[in-house]
Amino acid sequence: MPKKEPYQNRIELLQGTLDLLILETLRWGPHHGYGISQSIRSRSGDVLDVETGSLYPALHRLEKQKWIDSEWKLSENRQRVKIYRLTAAGKKRLTTERSRWGRLLQAMAGILEPKGQESET
Questions:
Q1: pTM of the model as a whole
Q2: Which tens digits make up the pLDDT trace of 31-60?
Q3: Domain map of the chain by residue range?
């Protein structure tokens, strides 16, 4: 398997999509910012690379909307890190966003692979 270039074919994420990815990542437990970005990268097969210039403004926005909460803690290597966790409001928002994403996927599938029609490629 060829090695993937980290910045080759970079995908720009729409704000709502990034919010969904962050909320989904925090559904599995609290993380610091770097852990969130690494989780998104690894779970996407190294396709999605969230830059700090996009991640931290999104985290601040989600915190302002009360969908996530944060606290400062000491990491394993004794450095202060901000740990983010999903709130009850964030869990509700995640459910709504997952439903919207599912409808979008169905709509895209209907366009890309219409039922009863063969592909013309």
A1: 0.81
A2: 999 999 999 999 999 999 999 999 999 999
A3: 15-109
